[in-house]
């Protein structure tokens, strides 16, 4: 005896999900995840796109013992060295600074109206790095050469109207570190003129002499 075929029930065209609450949560989670990723990408682009601030350099001390009229020590009077104190300030937030070797040159302006200049000393600072919002001090004594001391003493005397002008120049390259990556090298050239009194020290400089960018 042949068995009768039982017709299958037609499938519903618009069947609802078994757990609608899970579908709702999944959709909103994907939307939330997309927003978070977008915010992170925008923050990263803004972070890496910001132009870093160049570090500032200040000459806090410049002293020539042989010009100090108040000193009677023979060793001090006969010394033609220069004592300096230099400060580097990384004024960036969340960015480290990596310095190449820092080359410094000291010069003196001589002659009528200080129209000529002569190099009197130089030194260099080995490469170093600096954390954000930190200051690094460098103290050193530099031996001078070729200084026309009589010209200097004449200018710092009370009867002279022409000041004794010296100059410091600094040159290096710096890189900035944003998170895991370092930027390309940026040239840093700074310099400034200053006068010296009859005690062998910089004149009229409060909180140090800031070196300015040379273009």
UniProtKB/TrEMBL annotation:
One of its GO terms (cellular component) is plasma membrane. It is found in: Membrane. The chain crosses the membrane at residues 28-48. GO terms for biological process: defense response to other organism. It comes from Papaver nudicaule. This is Late embryogenesis abundant protein LEA-2 subgroup domain-containing protein. Its main location: membrane. Keywords: Membrane, Transmembrane, Transmembrane helix.
């Amino acid at each position: 005896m042949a068995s009768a075929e039982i017709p299958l029930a037609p499938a519903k065209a618009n069947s609802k999900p078994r757990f609608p609450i899970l579908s709702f949560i999944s959709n909103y989670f994907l939307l939330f995840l997309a927003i978070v990723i977008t915010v992170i990408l925008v923050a990263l682009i803004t972070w890496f796109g910001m132009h870093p601030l160049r570090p500032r350099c200040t000459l806090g001390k410049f002293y020539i013992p042989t010009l100090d009229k108040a000193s009677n020590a023979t060793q001090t009077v006969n010394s033609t060295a220069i004592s300096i104190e230099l400060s580097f300030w990384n004024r960036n937030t969340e960015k480290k600074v990596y310095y190449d070797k820092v080359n410094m040159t000291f010069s003196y302006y001589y002659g009528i109206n200080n129209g000529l200049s002569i190099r009197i000393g130089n030194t260099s600072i080995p490469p170093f790095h600096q954390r954000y919002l930190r200051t690094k001090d460098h103290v050193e004594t530099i031996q001078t050469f070729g200084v026309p001391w009589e010209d200097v003493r004449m200018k710092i005397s009370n009867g002279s109207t022409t000041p004794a002008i010296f100059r410091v120049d600094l040159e290096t390259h710096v890189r900035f570190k944003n998170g895991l990556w370092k930027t390309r090298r940026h040239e840093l050239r700074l310099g400034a003129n200053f006068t010296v009194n009859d005690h062998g020290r910089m004149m009229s400089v409060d909180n140090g002499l800031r070196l300015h960018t040379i273009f």
